[in-house]
Specification:
By secondary structure, the protein is an alpha+beta fold. It is 56% helix and 19% strand.
């Protein structure tokens, strides 16, 4: 019976500890997983906010750089336009040698394609170099000549020439010696502008890059990346066309071409991307600084893996600690039960001895106050019966 009591003490104590450890373990696991989820979500939100802010700030900076470069070309075109106009009105030089001289001087620092002069009817008066095609420029000038208000300097956006080359122009409005209107066109090759656009790529074929569209939403320049080759105006890629991505078309039509600045997410040719966008009103350009989402989420994924590995490590340590606690509890419960049940067992044996008439046993103190009091009572009882037995023996003599 006493052995069964010892076993029950061990079982009950171990069960209680197991239940406590289980509840504590499950609550700890849920807490750790909840903290992990919260930390990742919080990190993602903060990271995205910073990324959005940086993308927007960067694309605005690049827009300013491109605009400043174009403004410089506009100023140079205006300056040389005035100089050509003065030479024409003074009749000091023949037109061919004048254009050749101006072209040579400008081409030393600028990537010129051609300089051409048209009359008020859009008729070509002269050009240099003479082999360059100016049919497209002639159409633009004819439209300008028909317009009521003409600025002294007018920008002609990136266009495709008859020879499939791409260029952009500034048209200076002046007058000849007879005070008749003339249009002096400074046509530039686009390569220095392409180079400026490509500075947004940290390295060739980088997945972070800058693209530029015209006011119709057609790509002027999109540098080569891992997802696609170089795209220029000659490729006729219209970003307002849903075929190139419905979300992208909506961003271009509803945001960029309406002059807004911000950050959006879209899919282009099967690749999910973030884009910081802005608009250069003066030149009718839309700019997009693109960052694929896989690059954005990579640090977060790495952090998730790191947290997951540390979580597993923590749970493993916690499991080992739990096993040690359980084993220690079983051993401790065994010794505690022995400390309680052994004195009780000895007391029971002493009582059984009294019933059998054996009064010679005495119980020793166990160190437990309650059990020591019980042992004292039993010992007094044994003393009583022992003394009584001795007195009866002496009386019978």
């Amino acid at each position: 019976m006493i052995k069964r009591l010892s076993t029950k003490v061990v079982v009950y104590t171990t069960t209680l500890v197991l239940i406590t450890l289980f509840i504590f373990s499950m609550s700890s696991i849920f807490t750790i997983m909840a903290l992990k989820k919260y930390a990742l979500k919080k990190t993602e939100n903060v990271f995205k906010e910073n990324a959005d802010e940086n993308l927007e700030r960067e694309v605005v900076s690049y827009a300013k750089i491109l605009k400043d470069a174009m403004d410089a070309k506009e100023s140079i075109s205006y300056m040389f336009g005035e100089a050509v106009e003065k030479e024409i009105t003074s009749n000091k030089h023949q037109l061919p040698e004048l254009l050749q001289s101006v072209f040579s001087e400008m081409n030393n620092v600028l990537d010129m394609r051609v300089i051409a002069i048209f009359d008020s009817n859009g008729k070509l008066l002269d050009r240099y170099p003479t082999f360059e095609c100016v049919d497209v420029l002639k159409r633009y000038v004819s439209k300008l000549a028909k317009s009521e208000a003409v600025n002294r300097i007018k920008y002609i956006d990136f266009h495709i020439n008859k020879d499939e080359s791409v260029s952009f122009s500034f048209v200076y409005f002046g007058r000849d010696s007879k005070k008749k209107p003339i249009y002096i066109v400074f046509d530039y090759k686009p390569y220095d502008m392409y180079s400026l656009i490509r500075t947004a790529q940290l390295y060739p074929y980088s997945q972070k890059y800058l693209w530029v569209i015209n006011r119709e939403g057609v790509l002027i320049y999109d540098p080569p990346s891992k997802q696609h080759p170089l795209i220029t105006l000659t490729d006729h890629v219209d970003l307002t066309d849903p075929k190139n991505g419905k979300l992208l078309a909506e961003v271009v039509k509803d945001k960029i071409l309406k002059g807004e600045t911000g950050v959006a997410r879209y899919v282009f040719r099967g690749v999910d991307k973030f884009v910081g966008y802005t608009y250069v009103e003066k030149y009718g350009w839309g700019l997009g600084l693109t960052l694929p989402t896989e690059i954005f989420y990579k640090p977060i994924q790495d952090l998730s893996k790191d947290i997951a590995s540390k979580t597993i490590y923590t749970l493993a340590l916690f499991g080992l600690f739990s096993v040690i606690m359980i084993l220690s509890t079983i051993v401790l419960a065994f010794f505690i039960s022995r400390r309680i049940t052994v004195p009780i067992n000895e007391t029971a044996n002493a009582v059984e001895a009294i019933l059998k008439g054996d009064y010679s046993r005495r119980l020793k103190p166990s160190g437990t106050e309650e059990l020591d009091k019980l042992a004292e009572v039993v010992n007094r009882l044994l003393d009583y019966f022992s003394n009584r037995e001795n007195n009866e023996g002496e009386g019978s003599k």
